[in-house]
Amino acid sequence: MSFKRYVRFCRKIYLSIGCVPIRLKREATGHIADRLASALWREVVNIVSEGIADVDVVDAALIHGPGLRWAVTGAHMTYHLGGRSGGMSDYLQHLGLSQELLWADQGTPNLSPEVCATLIAGVDTQAQGKTVAELEQIRDDGLLRILTARKLKS
User: Fold this and answer.
1) Phi-psi region of 87 (alpha: psi -120 to 50; beta: other; left: phi over 0)
2) Is residue 90 part of a domain?
3) Is the pLDDT of residue 20 over 90?
4) Helix, coil or strand: residue 139
5) Is position 16 within any domain?
């Protein structure tokens, strides 16, 4: 089977089970979603390690802020909409510099023993005594509700 045919075959399988296939334009370390999650987690850890906010507060900000919007429109479209009627062009012209200043202020934390202890304690508090299996079930139920809601909109 040729590579192109194999890719089409795999795409059909993923679509048939309700997944969205993602195809890279070139090789890179890690899946796109994992790379994005890692970059976001780096800043989440930085916020906690710098004492800006606790684990539960950062997670709440993510869930009710970009996570909620990105589940519907993705990052690029969210910023495009942030430019109002002028779209991405106006966003970049009006807020591009402030975005660069924000990027410059974001950190590269080290997972020192102290930072790890803070993260572990924060997650333990947030878990409220639930096991990993229980938390996975809560997550999976939530994901299914989101996927169902997205299907109803399309």
Assistant:
1) left
2) yes
3) no
4) helix
5) no
Query: Domain tally for the chain?
Result: 1
Query: Does residue 109 belong to any structural domain of this protein?
Result: yes
Looking from the CA of 96 toward its CB, the CA atoms found within 13 Å total: 9
pTM for the full predicted model: 0.83
- The angle at the Cα of 122, spanning 137 to 70, to the nearest 5 degrees, equals 60
In this prediction, residues 119-137 reach a mean pLDDT of 97
As a whole number of angstroms, the distance between CA 97 and CA 12 comes to 42
- Domain with 95, as residue range(s), is 29-153
Residue with tokens 């890279």: 24
Domain of residue 108, CATH code: 1.10.1040.10
Task: Centre a 10 Å sphere on the Cβ of residue 55 and count the other Cβ atoms it contains.
Answer: 20
Instruction: Report if residue 4 sits inside a domain.
Output: no
Q: Are 45 and 52 spatial neighbours (Cβ–Cβ below 8 Å)? A: no
